[in-house]
Amino acid sequence: MRRAKTSAAPPERLILYFAYGANLHHEGMRLRCPRSRPLRLARLMDHALRIALPRKIPNVHTWATVVPEAGAQVPGILYLILERDIEALDSYEDYPEIYGREKVSVESDIGAEEALIYMMNGPIREARPSSEYATTLRRGYRENGLPMEVLETALGQER
Fold it and tell me: Is 5 domain-assigned?
């Protein structure tokens, strides 16, 4: 009896990734992680969206991050990515210099789900984004039908 040949490599692990900033824009995400797939809308509860940069970084660029805030929520998209995509995301997010990685619980239409998220390393200082970055964020929010008021509040840093 002949045995079928099988690959010795185990199947690649799939990971849920929660995008809330520039990675909401599907085309940019496809460029960074071509095998990624947007799955569904989700919300990170008890957090707020902010535009900021770490205090240790000179005031050149600002990016989106999330910060704990009781009662607030950050809308986003759950993507299904391959484990190898983390390297591309790490590079894009300037991990570990600017952003750290965490596992968080997000709420989606199927309930609580655990997902990977990038959060800016603190302490941070809030700042205004470039017009190009704000355009990218707005495009991602519109593309996914997310509530614009959350984004506009963060862009204006109104609280």
Answer: no
* In contact, 143 and 25? CB cutoff 8 Å: yes
Residue 61: predicted pLDDT: 78
Q: Which residue has the tokens 């995509």?
A: 85
**Domain for residue 93, yes or no?**
yes
Q: How far apart are CA 78 and CA 101, in angstroms?
A: 15
pTM: 0.90
Q: Which helix (H) or strand (E) holds 118?
A: strand 111-120
Residue 147 forms part of a structural domain: yes
| Residue 38 belongs to a domain | yes
H helices of the chain, where?
26-32, 85-92, 131-144, 148-156
Q: What is the pLDDT of residues 5-56, one digit of tens each?
A: 555 666 789 999 999 999 999 999 999 999 999 999 999 999 999 999 998 8
Domain count, the chain: 1
**Structure-token match 């005031």, residue found:** 59
Tens digits of residue pLDDT in 109-126: 999 999 999 999 999 998
Instruction: Return the SS3 of 23.
Output: helix
Q: CATH number, domain at 91? A: 3.10.490.10
